[in-house]
Amino acid sequence: STRKESSAASDVYKRQVNHVSLQRSKNASLPINDEGDQATYHSFHVSGRKGLQQYGTRAYAAIVKELTQLYHVKEAVTPVFREDLTPAEAKAVIRSSLFLNPKHDAMGTFEKIKARLVGNGKQQDRDLWPDRSSPTAMLESIMAVLTVAAKEGRKTADLDIGSAYLEAEWKGDPVHIVVEKMLATIYTHEFPELKKYQQEDGTMLMRLDKALYGTLIAGRLWFDKLTKVLADMGFTPNPLDPCVLNKTVGENQLTVVVFVDDILATCKDESTLEQLIDGLKGKFAEVKGCVRDDFSYLGMHVNNNRDENMVQVSMEGYEDELMRYASVTGVRSTPAAANLFEPGATAPLCESELAHFHTLVAKLLYLGCRTRPQIATAVSYLTTRVTCANEGDMHKLNRVLMYINGTKGNTLYLRGASEWRVEGYVDVGFGSHQDGKSHTGVLHKLCGSTVAAKSKKQKMVSKDSTEGELVGLTDRVDGVLRLDEFMQFQGHKMEVPVIYQDNQSTITLVTKGGGKYRNVHLRVRQCRLREIIESGKVRVTYLCTGNMIADILTKPLQGMMFTALEKKLLDAR
Length: 573
Known about the structure:
There is one protein chain. The protein is of the alpha+beta class. Helix content is 37%, strand content 23%. It has 16 helices and 21 strands. The strands form four sheets. Strands 1, 2, 3, 4, 6 and 7 form a six-stranded mixed β-sheet that branches. A six-stranded antiparallel β-sheet has the order 8-9-10-11-5-12, sandwiched between helices. A five-stranded mixed β-sheet has the order 19-18-17-20-21. Strand 14 and strand 15 (310-314) form a beta hairpin. The protein is globular and about 80 Å long.
């Protein structure tokens, strides 16, 4: 059976290239590997040709579905003759590419193979669309919304709008794409009336009538479309994050978080959430989702335990996939050794090893920003080495991976157990880096739960620890104030935010003044923060080093100190 499946997939590919008609298989089984098991899927997209070789008839069915969606269902493209284009339009034609991507939920369960035709936006003139940026919800905002859901016992719903960009009408000058030979052949097979548009080289030209993925303004057109629909439904965006929108229904607040085409909604009343879902289904053709307590959102597994007023967030599926991809077998109790910030003098990595190193660091960064803040220090350092990594850096990377492998089941708990207050923990590892620069760690807690954690190298050299702490404190105070203001716009009456600091001399400088700074920029930093404190916008409070949670974000801690701070980092209790 393995040989038959492999042969069938190969035949599909060959017949496509040779322009021979194919028979679709709507119920094709998953590809089988050489061991007779279902093939292992990774979250990497592949080209249409490679996808046909790898996934066979199932890939072909996904390609046909995407092309049919573009031409027949959404009417997003219109075939044209090259001679009908003006010289300027002919010169501005852009390439298109088709990619296949196996889709999984946050638990790692395979869902489907998704095909996507994208335009090459790099070939477009950026000056024609100066307002092309499209915002997405900040991760901190998402975690804050989930914390509020936990504190107030809200119900949750996750929604996905299929082929979202194709819901938005194209605006501006016409844009044409060229469809490659293989895809044009599939088009003519599925829609014989398109045969006349196929050019001598086998390609086909099409005009965009809807926002196509990959083009410069597609994201902006879709965002404007969706937010207008939500505005018509009575939603108002949060000024500090326009992707978070709110609506009051009776005595309940309905909150919607938009991340491209993925929507998270929270409300105490289930019927209000159902009305939102029905309203969106009336505006868009493909809306999937429902009210539920256990779901996947942006690769995260979210479990809303309303009985205990707690939301659990994890990424076990992503972690398992990462372990398979990196072939990790060993385990470690901490993500970094004590020599993390020492680059060493080992041999540099070759080009292919460097690319692999870069990929793994990017994957760890993605994970650390969501549910693994305890690896932030190690990952922050590794990001500075992606262009010049050596064998020692690869060992440090492998240690982070082995730590993840040894701590499977890691969960971030959002409880909302304390009062409505934003707390910031700011700590600095003085002179940590070889160039003399210090390392700042900052942690944002809302109602006692971690909603954001950052670990970052400072941009300037400090002369002593007090100066380094001042730089870290003044750099990160704006983030605390922003989160507090965001929550106020969400309609919550917040207590004065508190920033915890373990350097008493730095606290004295920003609360009482004084000091003998000879550098103007440091004096300005000190005076600005003191002004903010005196205005009552924030309080700076001393916290002993043993309880400074941000310490885990500044240095490679070991043993019981790491374990104790890790628990406080992940859990509000």
